[in-house]
Backbone:
């Protein structure tokens, strides 16, 4: 158990005079040690899971994608990086291979939403609300993982980017931030004036958002002043996801009470020319390098701290099993999810593979869903965050076939709930 | 008298009793619906009308609308051509030549990489105009130098150095006035000129136009039929798209706007329909050599978004089968050379001539361009479309959760008038719900509304609108750069978050201290107003 003084020193938050540290900081201090953290990454636009984790052992994969399939594992340039003799990684994800080999990265294939929608908007909405098929749900599942404890930090729940992600909306305060560095009112006196005006507002929504904002500004004050240097030689790729994850890492290491964080990366909707001159180059390849490189840098940067962190990825649905007429793919159904972290039982591909032969496909065209995305997230929420009230987070869903993404001890906790 | 009072009391008690029996959620709905029956004061009516049908109140606007009468003011706004345009705006727009050019002229005067390559390789003639020739030569030299560098540097380094050049240029032109930048970019980075003029013009119009409702509607409908400026050829196609497919139709017939967008190169390119073609027959020999020759077959992208986002709405009752059938109807709707400013073309050769069934309607085999045209008529005339469009308009102009009874009346007007958007607007604007306490100040301003509104309220003089555009992007709404076809949310709640709030506050601080480049306010008169713009009571309209 760290004392407050030690904590302040370690976290770089010593800027506050000891006597004047705000209440939430006091509370944060007591509660931060080894708090479990969940990072959620959304690949918006329906990523082509079949070209991300390649089922190279399924010959229908190659039959359906003559122009865009990633070549079988082998010595050739651009070949699939084999994982288990049947599945392999797109070569542009080679930065993730060591994490898989260290058994800290689990891949869950053929998973997705039970709702048949092929609408980006609805698909994302369902995956963020955690209630597929129900549009009226106002809050998001990630917000519902937050409980009413008294140790709330103003940056307990953070969404990177200019808008608050749907999945973080709800009864618990959550902040959206573009960049840690710029998170301040430029003029200090004006800042105080606005703070009191928001505090006095009769508009409850704006009053609440104002309060969350000004508290987060104060907390992040000391982080803004130092240039963040990633540890262990980690290099984040340029681009939105790299920058988001770098800032999430910074906030985690500051021990400032972060519990859940959200970031997204768009541009996965490849109806046309998904691949370039060769199947392992082109738009999807570029995105995957950014995606894999960002995840790997985050993992490397956090080092042993990954024991407290789980990062999980998702996309609203997959894409057609066969390529379309334009070297691209159209909206499909099941997809692939990545989950990585110190406590994850990785190095394995989870889920039942339904096959890609025509009669095995969903509606004759798409990879079928054999694992509900809530199965994955449910295990993360219970096994990692230790959230006991599963039905609050995913109302109406009950686990059908536990995957066992977390170690036995965590699984026991799961059962006892 | 006493009896009446008693009856009234009894009635109230009964209502209270009934309400007690209704579940809590439903009670909330009933209570909030009641607010749409509450009237506004005269002063509130004027404020409310300006806040919804314009980008905000300028000094003097309130007095003017009250003098003319709210109803008359609305009528005139519904007939924008009857309002003389602000000469200041006309003069400003005249300094941005790309706005009025046809796409054909645009790609020649502001050449695309493809046009430059074509000239460099002799496939196209070098322009004769000496000024233009100079531009082409400079750009070709730069292009060749880049090819040379490519041989020595690796891809990432190459990209980084290119980004560096662009960044420096961006910073340099960022400080210029609109007029100076327009000229500089034309010579040095023509494709940036096209984008920046489009973006700046939107802000100038929002702030300065006398035809405010027209500008609000142009913003609304562009967003409804969203295209993404940074998707390849769309950089050159969006200017004409907004001008000809959107602006020309905002108070016209809805089906005309659907057809104009369906045949616009910008939409055809953005949602990939231009390369959608009849799938090659199973036994047809397909070339395995060139990828281009293989690029044939159905692409569902446009067909799906046409139904989900443009017409029926996602719950409008269509199936995956309908998506495929609609896509088949639109095969052959393509563009003549998108990167060279080409026009819409119907390519008979790649059109699927088989029979199709769309929403239960059989479209007989052997058709051509009329297949797609018929789909547009079916979709535009569908009751689901009438409701979807009415609800979306009401969400923009009335409230985030508009009363169902109002949507019904608007949808009825839509059906009766075959989708006359002006008539639908009239039904909405004359409704008791529009001019009610339920609507009044209930909507969060979008970033564009917030910034344009602040510039209007402070009587700001604008010589460069890019810094304002950057502020809008910081708040979460980069103009013309919503990548997804959904457009930005019409629900005001979307904009309520800490990042956005902070960006709004910082914008107001800069504005009040006259630190926003290209924008000047009269400090003595409007500094306090500018500062207010970041306060909670100014975030709603």
Residues:
């Amino acid at each position: 158990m760290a004392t407050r003084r030690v904590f302040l020193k370690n976290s770089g938050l010593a800027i506050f005079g000891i006597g004047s540290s705000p209440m939430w900081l006091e509370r944060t201090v007591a509660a931060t040690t080894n708090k479990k953290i969940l990072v959620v990454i959304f690949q918006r636009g329906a990523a082509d899971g079949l070209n991300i984790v390649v089922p190279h052992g399924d010959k229908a994969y190659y039959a359906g994608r003559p122009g865009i399939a990633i070549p079988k594992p082998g010595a050739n340039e651009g070949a699939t990086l084999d994982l288990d003799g049947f599945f392999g990684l797109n070569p542009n994800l080679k930065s993730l291979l060591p994490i898989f080999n260290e058994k800290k990265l689990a891949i869950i294939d053929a998973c997705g939403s039970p709702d048949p929608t092929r609408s980006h908007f609805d698909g994302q909405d369902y995956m963020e609300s955690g209630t597929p098929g129900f549009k009226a749900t106002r809050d998001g599942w990630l917000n519902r993982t937050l409980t009413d404890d008294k140790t709330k930090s103003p940056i307990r729940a953070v969404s990177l980017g200019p808008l608050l992600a749907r999945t973080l909306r709800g009864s618990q305060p959550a902040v959206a931030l573009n960049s840690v560095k710029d998170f301040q009112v430029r003029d200090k006196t004006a800042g105080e004036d606005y703070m009191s005006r928001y505090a006095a507002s009769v508009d409850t929504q704006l009053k609440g958002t104002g309060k969350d904002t000004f508290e987060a500004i104060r907390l992040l004050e000391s982080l803004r002043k130092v240039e963040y240097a990633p540890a262990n030689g980690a290099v984040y790729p340029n681009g939105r996801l790299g920058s988001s994850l770098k800032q999430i890492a910074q906030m985690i290491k500051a021990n400032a009470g972060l519990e859940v964080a959200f970031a997204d990366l768009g541009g996965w909707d490849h109806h046309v020319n998904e691949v370039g001159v060769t199947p392992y180059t082109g738009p999807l390849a570029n995105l995957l390098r950014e995606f894999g490189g960002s995840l790997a840098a985050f993992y490397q940067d956090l080092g042993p701290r990954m024991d407290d962190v789980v990062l999980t990825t998702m996309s609203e649905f997959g894409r057609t099993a066969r390529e379309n007429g334009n070297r691209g793919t159209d909206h499909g159904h099941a997809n692939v999810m990545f989950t990585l972290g110190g406590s994850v039982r990785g190095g394995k591909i989870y889920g039942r593979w339904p096959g890609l032969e025509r009669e095995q496909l969903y509606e004759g065209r798409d990879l079928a869903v054999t694992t509900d995305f809530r199965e994955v997230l449910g295990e993360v929420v219970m096994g990692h965050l230790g959230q006991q009230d599963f039905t609050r987070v995913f109302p109406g869903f009950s686990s059908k076939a536990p995957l066992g993404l977390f170690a036995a001890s965590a699984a026991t906790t799961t059962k006892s709930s | 008298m006493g009896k009446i009072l008693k009856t009234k009391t009894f009635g109230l008690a009964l209502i209270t009793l009934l309400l007690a029996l209704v579940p809590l959620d439903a009670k909330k709905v009933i209570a909030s619906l009641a607010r749409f029956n509450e009237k506004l004061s005269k002063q509130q009516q004027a404020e409310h009308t300006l806040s919804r049908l314009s980008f905000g109140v300028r000094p003097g606007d309130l007095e003017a609308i009250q003098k003319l009468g709210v109803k008359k003011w609305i009528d005139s706004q519904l007939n924008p051509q009857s309002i003389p345009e602000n000469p200041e705006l006309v003069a400003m727009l005249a300094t941005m030549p790309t706005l009025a050019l046809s796409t054909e002229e645009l790609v020649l005067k502001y050449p695309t990489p493809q046009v430059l390559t074509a000239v460099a390789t002799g496939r196209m003639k070098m322009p004769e105009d000496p000024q233009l020739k100079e531009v082409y030569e400079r750009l070709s030299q730069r292009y060749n130098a880049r090819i040379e560098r490519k041989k020595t540097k690796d891809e990432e380094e190459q990209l980084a150095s290119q980004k560096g050049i662009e960044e420096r240029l961006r910073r340099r032109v960022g400080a210029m006035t609109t007029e100076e930048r327009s000229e500089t970019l034309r010579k040095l980075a023509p494709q940036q000129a096209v984008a920046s003029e489009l973006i700046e013009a939107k802000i100038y119009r929002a702030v300065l136009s006398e035809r405010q409702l027209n500008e609000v509607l142009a913003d609304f409908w562009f967003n409804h039929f969203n295209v993404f400026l940074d998707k390849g050829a769309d950089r050159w196609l969006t200017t004409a798209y907004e001008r000809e497919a959107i602006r020309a139709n905002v108070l016209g017939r809805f089906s005309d706007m659907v057809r104009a967008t369906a045949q616009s190169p910008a939409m055809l390119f953005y949602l990939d329909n231009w390369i959608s073609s009849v799938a090659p027959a199973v036994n047809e020999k397909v070339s395995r050599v060139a990828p281009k020759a293989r690029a044939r077959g159905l692409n569902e992208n446009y067909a799906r978004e046409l139904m989900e986002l443009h017409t029926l709405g996602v719950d409008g009752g269509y199936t995956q089968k309908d998506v495929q059938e609609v896509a088949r109807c639109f095969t052959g709707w393509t563009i003549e050379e998108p990167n060279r400013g080409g026009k819409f073309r119907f390519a008979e050769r790649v059109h699927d001539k088989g029979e199709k069934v769309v929403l239960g309607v059989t479209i007989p085999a052997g058709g051509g361009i009329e297949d797609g045209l018929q789909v547009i008529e079916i979709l535009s005339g569908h009751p689901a479309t009438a409701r979807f469009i009415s609800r979306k308009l009401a969400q923009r102009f009335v409230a985030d959760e508009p009363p169902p009874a109002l949507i019904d009346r608007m949808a009825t007007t839509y059906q009766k008038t075959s989708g006359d958007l002006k008539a639908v607007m009239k039904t909405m604007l004359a409704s008791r719900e529009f001019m009610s306490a339920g609507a009044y100040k209930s909507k969060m301003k979008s970033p564009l509304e917030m910034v344009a509104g602040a510039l209007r309220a402070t009587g700001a003089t604008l010589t460069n609108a890019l810094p304002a555009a950057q502020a809008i992007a910081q708040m979460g709404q980069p103009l013309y750069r919503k990548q997804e076809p959904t457009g930005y949310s019409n629900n005001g709640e979307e904009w309520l978050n800490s990042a956005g709030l902070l960006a709004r506050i910082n914008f107001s601080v800069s504005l009040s201290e006259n630190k926003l480049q290209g924008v000047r306010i009269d400090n003595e008169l409007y500094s306090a107003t500018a500062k207010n713009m970041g306060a909670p009571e100014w975030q709603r309209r």
Notes: Confidence is low (pLDDT under 50) at residues 286-294 of chain B. Chain B is about 60% helix and 5% strand. The first strand of chain B starts at residue 333 and ends at 335. Chain B touches chain A through 52 residues (CB under 8 Å).
